[in-house]
Specification:
Elements (H helix, E strand, L loop, with lengths): L1 E2 L10 H13 L9 H21 L6 E4 L2 H10 L5 E5 L4 H10 L2 E5 L9 H10 L3 E5 L13 H10 L3 E5 L11 H4 L3 E5 L10 E5 L1 H4 L22 H36 L5 E3 L9 E6 L4 H10 L2 E2 L15 H5 L4 H4 L2 E5 L6 H20 L1
Parallel strand pairs: 1-11, 3-4, 3-5, 5-6, 6-7
Antiparallel strand pairs: 2-8, 7-8, 9-10, 10-12
The protein binds pyridoxal-5'-phosphate.
The site of pyridoxal-5'-phosphate (PLP) has 15 residues, from helix 3.
Length: about 375
């Protein structure tokens, strides 16, 4: 079976697995305890904080460990609680739904046909609504892989006096600018998208912004008083190791994976009535393709039966039978919206896997069209 759904989740790497298991077995103390067991655990947590801060390009006291991308996004949006927020129409539901539930008003930044949020649209919003408290724009879209104009959005937000949040769940682990270069106030990361386990992530909060930060929850005052609760040492160690490993391998891997992705696209786009959705700069492994006369759902099921696991859109939407809000916002024609699949490859994908993906998807498109 070939796994081609890395944008949904990644396997835990060997290096991360080893560190996590060793920590779970050997470093069981509570990092808040003052005795030697506690100190050993606290050291592990601080080492991981250094590793994550190094990858993001921030200070260690700007890293707040969370349970994953959804919690980080929810908490970031709380900075705009009961106030106006501007979000792109292609954000993940973790941002869209928290904005809908927590903000006082939500403005939606238009998206262009290439899959990038429109900075003109953002500027219009900021001009028309000078009370906008926060702008949120993702680094890379989870369905198309398209990299967003984050620096421009941050500059626009800041010149209008708004905070800027970036959901970088699909970006971190790939070569990308640091949080300082992006000029974010808040940035969300999820461990299971970068070869660490599920249940761990982080929220970067710029130091000056953290002073006015709402608490995640209340209790014993862990995570600088903002996120109480005994921290999960093995998961944090795993995230730290995943960040260190990303720094070691991401340059080469992005290059290798990007070439494989391009080869897959080149071959599959030879199929008549096929299109690629999203253009311009994209994260290396993600490809959104559509094949007229099929449905994404049937292609996904056929490919699964033939040994290739890919996605009919975003896995987070599986089970919800509504068209993708991302493809709708991009104004993708209906026949391609319903026939889109996402192939997302990663570190364990070989050239042979890529050839098998091409063969299987081609066969399944023919089968879906016949059936
Ligand atoms: N943001 C983006 C862009 C995502 O792709 C995802 C997960 O698919 C999330 C947020 C949610 O992250 P998590 O699964 O860690 O809660």
């Amino acid at each position: 079976m070939i796994y081609a759904d890395y944008a949904a989740t990644t396997p835990v790497s060997e290096r991360v697995y080893d560190v996590m298991c060793r920590t779970m077995r050997d470093v069981f103390g509570n990092p808040s305890s003052a005795h030697s067991f506690g100190c050993s655990a606290a050291e592990v947590v601080e080492r991981a904080r250094c590793q994550t801060a190094k990858l993001l390009g921030c200070d260690t006291d700007e890293v707040y460990f969370t349970s994953g991308g959804t919690e980080s996004d929810n908490h970031a949006v709380r900075f705009a609680e009961n106030r106006r927020i501007a979000v792109s129409a292609i954000e993940h539901p973790a941002v869209l739904e928290s904005a809908r539930h927590m903000a006082g008003a939500v403005e939606y930044i238009d998206v262009l046909r290439d899959g990038r949020a429109s900075i003109d649209s953002l500027n219009r919003i900021l001009h028309d609504f000078p009370d906008t408290a926060m702008v949120s724009l993702m680094y890379a879209n989870n369905e198309t892989g398209v990299i967003q104009p984050v620096r421009e959005a941050a500059a626009a937000a800041h010149s209008a006096g708004a905070l800027f949040h970036c959901d970088a769940v699909q970006g971190v682990g790939h070569v990308m600018p640091t949080v300082r270069e992006l000029d974010c106030d808040l940035l969300s990361v999820s461990g299971h998208k970068l070869y660490a386990p599920k249940g761990i992530g982080l929220l970067y909060i710029r130091k000056e912004v953290a002073k006015k930060a709402p608490a995640f929850h209340y209790g014993g005052g862990q995570e600088n008083g903002l996120r109480s609760g005994t921290v999960p040492t093995p998961l944090i160690a795993a995230l730290g190791e995943a960040c260190a490993e990303a720094l070691d391998v991401m340059r080469d891997e992005d290059c290798r994976i990007g070439k494989l992705r391009d080869e897959i696209e080149r071959e599959l786009l030879k199929i008549p009535d096929s299109v690629r959705i999203g253009s311009g700069e994209r994260v290396s492994g993600t490809s959104c393709l559509a094949f007229g006369g099929t449905t994404g759902e049937s292609l996904m099921l056929l490919c699964d039966l033939r040994g290739v696991a890919l996605s009919a859109g975003s896995a987070c939407h599986t089970g919800i039978d509504t068209p993708s809000h991302v493809l709708s916002a991009m104004d993708v024609p209906e026949k391609y919206r319903s026939s889109a699949i996402r192939i997302s490859i990663g570190r364990n994908t070989t050239h042979d896997d890529a050839l098998q993906i091409i063969k299987t998807v081609s066969e399944c498109v023919s089968l879906a069209r016949e059936g």
